[in-house]
Design a protein that fits this description.
Length: about 290
């Protein structure tokens, strides 16, 4: 029987859709409909273990799963709070579900900086990360552990401030709170243990991560095509964000102009196009790149 690589993925929630989308872009064919815990990938020897995000680091650590996709916030919290430690670490950053674990307090209140926390109470669902921060900063404050709705803690006088995830900032604002310190910047990560995989699983893993790298590299990348005066070629090449040597092609009947094509590995903004135009570039096209392999 072929060995199957097992990946633990959040079943439902903020990470789930983007995790499934990433795996589908890597060419994995599967369906997550139905309530099963294990989903078989049809075209590769891979199974998906559909679980709550909090359980993913422990599944990887114990060997119940070979890999996992979870927020770095969850991984770091579990590393800090699991008795005996975790054999699970970041293998790759995946670039989605970005958020920050922040300290926040009442917008017009007295707590404005970490040192103001001394002798106060802080509500959080991340006691491990918060405890480490307070210790590193030499701040003596009480941690009030909650399971959710942390943003309500100050208004009901459970704590003077909170330590919670922030993405748009709308939740803090709606509760009259402002962030005053970031403790951790987080994004979804591929989690792996230090255990050696069997040769068969190692092959599947190598293939998968090569594809993941191709997908993450191409998501910010664009193919740019433009016509440029020969005299401005150096200036124009310098503006192209994250581009190696571009392809330069003569233009029929126009000796002073060339066509330039390049892969830009960083975002191409409207400002970039305006700068290119100011240097004499014309007919500028920016195209998405679906897949890349070096
Ligand atoms: O059921 P399960 O345990 O699997 O899911 P869950 O409810 O524990 O987690 P879920 O699905 O809410 O979040 C999963 C992961 O998404 C988190 O661990 C983070 O890595 C990531 N993520 C990204 C976020 C946010 N952005 C986020 N904004 N997780 C939570 N939030 C919450 C935050 O706690 C606060 O309540 O959204 C609110 C703030 O959002 P803004 O936009 O108002 O600032
Ligand atoms: Zn959770």
């Amino acid at each position: 029987m072929t060995e199957r690589l097992r990946i633990a993925v959040q079943k439902k929630g903020r990470l789930a859709d983007d995790s499934f989308a990433l795996l589908k872009k890597c060419g994995l064919r599967f369906s997550v409909r139905g309530g099963g815990l294990l989903t078989r990938v049809k075209n590769l020897p891979i199974d998906l273990l559909l679980v709550r995000d909090d359980d993913i680091p422990a599944f990887v650590s114990t060997g119940a799963s070979d890999l996992g996709i979870a927020g770095e916030n969850i991984l770091v919290e579990e590393q800090l709070t699991t008795e005996g430690g975790l054999d699970a670490d970041v293998d790759r950053r995946l670039g989605f579900s970005r958020c920050s674990l922040c300290l926040a307090s009442e917008t017009d209140g007295a707590i404005r900086r970490p040192s103001d926390l001394a002798g106060t109470k802080i509500a959080t669902t991340y006691p491990g990360v918060l405890r480490k921060f307070l210790k590193d900063q030499n701040i003596n404050a009480k941690i009030v552990e909650m399971k959710g709705a942390v943003e309500l803690a100050p208004s009901i006088h459970i704590a003077e401030s909170i330590c919670d995830l922030v993405s748009s900032g709308a939740t803090l604002e709606a509760n009259g709170l402002s962030a005053f310190e970031t403790i951790l910047n987080s994004e979804a990560v591929l989690i792996k243990s230090a255990r050696k995989l069997s040769p068969a699983k190692q092959d599947i893993y190598d293939k998968l991560v090569r594809r993941i790298d191709g997908v993450t590299a191409s998501s910010d990348s664009k193919y740019i095509m433009l016509n440029a005066p020969k005299s401005a070629l150096a200036d124009i090449t310098a503006i192209l964000p994250g581009a190696d040597a571009p392809t330069v092609i003569p233009l029929a009947g126009q000796d002073d102009m060339v066509a330039v094509q390049a892969v830009c590995t960083e975002n191409v903004f409207w400002e970039t196009l305006e700068q290119l135009k100011a240097k004499g570039a014309r007919s500028i096209l920016v195209l998405p790149i679906e897949k890349m392999m070096a």
